[in-house]
Each structure stands twice: as C-alpha cells, then as structure tokens.
Amino acid sequence: MDTMRDRFAPVVSRLLDEDPRVAVVLAEIGKDGFAEALRRHPDRVINVGIREQLLVGAAAGLALTGLRPVVHTFASFLVERPFEQVKLDLGHQDTGAVLVSAAASFDWPAGGYTHMAPGDVALLDTLDGWTVHVPGHPDEAETLLRRAVAAGDDKVYVRLSAQANGQGLAVDGQHFLTVREGRSGVVVAVGPMLDTVLAATEGLDVTVLYATTVRPFDAAGLRRATETAGTDVVLVEPYLAGTSTTAVSEALADVPHRTLGLGVGRRELRRYGTIEEHVAAHGLDARSLRERIGGFVRAGRVSVRP
Predict the structure, then answer these.
(1) How many CB atoms sit inside 10 A of residue 70's CB?
(2) What DSSP state is assigned to residue 147?
(3) pLDDT digits over 219-234, tens only?
(4) Backbone angles phi, psi at 231, to 5 degrees
(5) Rounded distance, CA 227 to CA 215, Å?
(6) Is the pTM of this model over 0.85?
(7) For residue range 111-129, what is the model confidence (pLDDT) as tens digits?
(8) Measured between alpha carbons, how far is residue 269 from residues 55, 74, 109, 159, 280 in Å?
(9) What positions does the domain Transketolase-like pyrimidine-binding occupy (predicted)?
(10) What angle, 0 to 180 degrees and rounded to 10, lies between the N-to-C axes of helices 138-149 and 4-18?
C-alpha cells in the first residue's frame, strides 16, 4: 500500500491543473514530487529553500493576492519553527492556507527530536479558526486534501503520517464515524490509531468512534454516542496525550462524565529506535491500550454501583 505522503504530490499536482487559484509552497522537502508540476506551472510551484518562516510568510502573501496556497514540510518545521508566522501572517491577517505536514509525531525516528512534533495540534489549538484533519489511510488523505483545498480561504491543517489503518473509510471532513457500538463507554480513535484501538477493545463493551477531523470537534456526534454508551470517554490520539480532553469536557459540560486522554507522552525518548518502539514506549500499542482502556472502563462500572 502506498503512503499518505505518496498521494500528496500527485493529488496536489492534479489540483494545480484543475484550479488556477492553487499554488504550492515548499522548503526543499518534497520538491522532487513536484518536478513535472513545476514545468507546467512555474509561477505556482515555489521552493523557498530551507527557510521555514519564509515558507509560511510567502504562502500568506500568495493568499493575499487571491491564491489558495498549499504548504508542505515536516510537522516540526511547518507548525513549531514558524509558529509566529502561522499566528501573524495567516491568523492575524485573516488569510487562509492549507498546511500539509509529514513525519507526524515520530514517523522518522532517525531524524531525532528535531524532526518530531507530537505537540503540533495542541499548538494550533492556541489559535482561532483552524480546521484540523488527521487521516488514517491514504484514501482518506486524498479525500481530505481535496476538501481542504476547496475550503474557500479557510485555514486548514492536514496531518499526514507513515502510520495507517488497513483500509480507508468514507470520511466527510466533519463528522465522527461509529465503527463499533457498546454500552460501557466511548473510545474515540483518531486517524491512524483506529486499527490498534479496534484490536485493543475487541470483546470490550464499548462504542468506538473514528475521528479524522478533530477541529472543529464533533461534539454532537460524541453526545449521541454517550446517550447509549454512557459518559466515560477515552481519547486515543496519535499526538500529545490529552490534546482534545478540553473539547470532550465542553461537549459534555452539562452531564457528569469521566475522560481519559491517551497519546504521546511529554517525556522525550532520547534513543532513535523504530516507529514501533516509540509506539510501545508511549503505551499506544494494542496490549497497552487494552490494559489502560479496560481498567478505566472497569473503574467506571465500580464507581456507579449503589
């Protein structure tokens, strides 16, 4: 199976052909995938070199002229390093762009901590008006990329990952999907965490929701699920643990509930290792998730006994 990032350049190259508003801004990373598109559209495929602040600033300038810029590099260089430009050049000027990241939280361990960005979604949460897509399969990435580019002049972040589920689902860029139904709690699996969550919750009496668009957060979808499954909610996110717990609290503000946020821990792992070793070290493998989710659900059942 190809990866989400394998789909990125071909999909956006077709969008360049289809829509004269689309422009691509790169900072060296990913430029080879746009070699042919550069020949066809030399005025709308721009490589600024290894200058990430300029990457975002140039995109904002293009947006001010009426173009729809698609901006791409590793997440740590797209959100963290040029955060001031994301905040001011896009946010403060009220201009839109599609930021498309690669490498996710730790998809290239050999790159070290400089190339890891588990805090990217939490950082964007400090800003207003961002849509955040976290696809879990290349087919979903293609769907959400097209939706993001077509989203007028909105500010959109598309978080691509080397980790993926076995099959894509029909995502609409707005709502959570109900993948499994139960009566002892709700587990929200974000993007590439779905297959692992399904394995971890096999035999547990829980509802599993699948989220590929996390901002705006589908509060109505979560509330509907809790009507039959109860208000114990577990979030399993492929980035910083607890990133969406506030969104859960706001969605269920008027009802008693418990929330468990699982994801990447704050402790820096100072050995490169493999993706699988990082997943296990953060407790995001199926066995660890089953222990943590099962324990949380069992504790909830005990707490409601008369």
Answers:
(1) 28
(2) H
(3) 999 999 999 999 999 9
(4) -105, 20
(5) 22
(6) yes
(7) 999 999 999 999 999 999 9
(8) 29, 19, 10, 22, 12
(9) 2-167
(10) 30
